[in-house]
Amino acid sequence: MVSDIRYTQHLAMTDDKFDSNDPNWFKRRWQIKFSKNLTFTNTKCPKKKYKNIWAYTIFSEKPAYSGNPNIAEMAKNPLNSNQLLSGGYNNTLCVNNVYNNSNQQSMNNMRLKDKYGITNITFSGGCRSNIRDIYFDHLGRPFNSMNKKYAYELASPAWHKLLTSPCDIKLSNSSGNITIQIEPETGYVHIL
Predict the structure, then answer these.
(1) What is the Cα–Cα distance from 120 to 100, expressed in whole angstroms?
(2) C-alpha distances in angstroms, 176 versus 94, 110, 123?
(3) Which residues touch 192 (CB under 8 Å, ≥6 apart)?
(4) Residue 3: helix, strand or coil by DSSP?
(5) What is the CA radius of gyration of the chain?
(6) pLDDT reported for residue 97
(7) N or C: which end of the chain has fewer CB within 10 A?
(8) What is the CA 64 to chain-centroid distance, rounded?
(9) Hey, CA dihedral for 55, 173, 38, 168, is it positive or negative?
(10) pLDDT attached to residue 190
(11) Which residues 6+ apart lie within 8 Å of 37 measured at CB?
(12) Could you give the CA distance from residue 87 to residue 106 in angstroms, rounded to a whole number?
């Protein structure tokens, strides 16, 4: 996961989304989204159900700007271009190839419950607890949420979107907890 967060930052710095002709260019920033799959059924993957499984996805939004990844927006695995950097986001793609489903494009290690037994993820510190997305700008600076109107924050006493203190991501399973921390400004990621 640490490597995937760093890879998201790398994509943001090498694939700058700035476009002077598009006032919403900043909404296409690369991001990593942690979510509990809510609607996985067997419609995409026969005989498999992945409801309530923690997973994450790396993506850059297209002009719809829904906040939710779809297949066209997901990053490709640099080691296998047939796979997407996603544990499967709701019913967007198949998550298991046991049944020779040609749509299997997800990454097993990005389905955190299946691979690591993760039962809960908590964001705290410099991150909002209710937003489990990390965005990076072209300088590699991490954001915990995105302003829907402006590329960068206006000066205000409101919650900072650009990280101003370390973001803690606590992963929990039956063996205990581990915390990954993302530093402000540099985006340096490490395990506490």
Answers:
(1) 30
(2) 30, 19, 16
(3) 168, 178, 179, 180, 181
(4) helix
(5) 17
(6) 45
(7) C
(8) 17
(9) negative
(10) 97
(11) 50, 51, 52, 53, 54, 55, 87, 88, 89, 90
(12) 5
105, amino acid identity: Q
Q: Token pair of 125, please?
A: 């510190």
Nearest to 179 by CA among 58, 1, 34: 1
Give the per-residue pLDDT at 30. 92
The single residue listed with the structure tokens 């906040």 is: 67
Q: How many residues does the chain have?
A: 192
Encoded amino acid at 136, one letter: F
What single letter denotes the amino acid at residue 33? K
Residues of the chain with pLDDT below 70 are: 38-51, 89-104, 147, 153-160
In a 10 Å sphere around its CB, with 0-12 CB exposed, 13-18 middle and 19+ buried, how is residue 154 labelled? exposed
Q: Which residues pair with 142 in a beta bridge?
A: 136
* CA 173 – CA 24 distance, rounded (Å): 39
Indicate the DSSP class of residue 71: G
How far apart CA 121 and CA 36 sit, in angstroms, is 9
Closest-CA residue to 59 (of 134, 165, 148): 134
Q: Strands of 167-173's sheet, edge to edge?
A: 120-125, 167-173, 176-182, 189-191
